[in-house]
User: Fold this.
Amino acid sequence: MAATLYLAGSIFILAVAASSWFQARRIGPLVPVYFFTGWLAGELALQVVAVGVLVTLAFAALGAFAEPRGLIGLALSLAAWGLLLATHFRAQGAKREIEALAREAGLAIEHGDVSRTHGFSNPFAMKRAGVKRIRHVPYGDSLPGDKGGRNLLDIVMPEAPGSGRPILLQIHGGGWMIGDKREQGGPLMGYLASRGWVCFAINYRLSPQAKFPAHIVDVKRALRWIREHAHEYGADPRFICVTGGSAGGHLTALTALSQNDPAFQPGFESADTRVSAAVPFYGVYDFLDRAKIRGRQSMVSILTKYVFPCPPDENPELWDAACPITRVAADAPPFLVVQGTHDTLVFVEEAREFVRALREKSRAPVHYLEMKGAQHAFEIFHSARCQYSVRAAAAFLEAEHAKYRAGQRAA
Assistant:
């Protein structure tokens, strides 16, 4: 019995390891499972190996390897551990990737203290010394479509008093239908807050209870509130940057490219919703797949069913307005676009196409960080690759803040 159980477990862990190493995208109903296993195993490869070794020792004590099935299972486990270790060492290439970005963009990216085992003992620890979190602050009234607490934000900031601090607005992902301000952006917000930034992580109304453009309207409402109340938290309302991943990456890019658009600011059309810089992680930039990247993995049907109030042919203007790639213009703010090559949910080619469009039209700097082997949501919890991407994003944002400060002094 022990040998059979161990063999079954070994087959499973080998499949998990394969999902962390190999790229697979157009796999229909298997996409969610492939993403989830590849994501966890890809960023927590060492932890998975460590658990596997402990489980193997336990089965050895139960006599599993006295039977051929147990020995076959051991061989499969060794193969899985090899794949996982290869995945882990491939992730270390993020160091070279951010060094290339530093040379191309002229950024000073501090990363000398990032170890190969960064986050191994506690990949979910988001607390930092000298940083506090103020929870559940309302940024406006609860609006129709709010299923509870969607008009709230958290503030991650230095414990020490200060003034004139730069601001980061963090937008969570979740397919515009799930997610919460507590779940994403922790490593980046903690790192920046430890360096004097004030970070605001927001909730927004979710589908299907709310339909687009409710999501971006709430981001703009939060942005207005932050600008009005920034001084209460020692922050500078004139310098606000925006970031987020997945659906939050889409809303990040859309926020940056729809500055002061009255269509997304009903009732507060005159509010200043400009941002100083944007860092979208693995965002969706074109719902209509104009570049023919997604093929049969098109998002139109699910977005029509759950997120938008109508299909594209009934209101093409609304769908176009929702796509960041249609809004690229010369006055776009500076961008750092971050994407993983092995993303199962948002294909890397979409990020490349968005960067190409930005570089073609924008007068501001446009930088691109492509993380080899990275799956969707790779930077949610601590890993070496996560920390490298955090350092790159922070260096970009601080460089833009330095330019802002220099402009202030010159004026």
Remarks:
- The chain is about 45% helix and 15% strand.
- Residues 2-91 form one domain.
- The two ends are 77 Å apart (CA to CA).
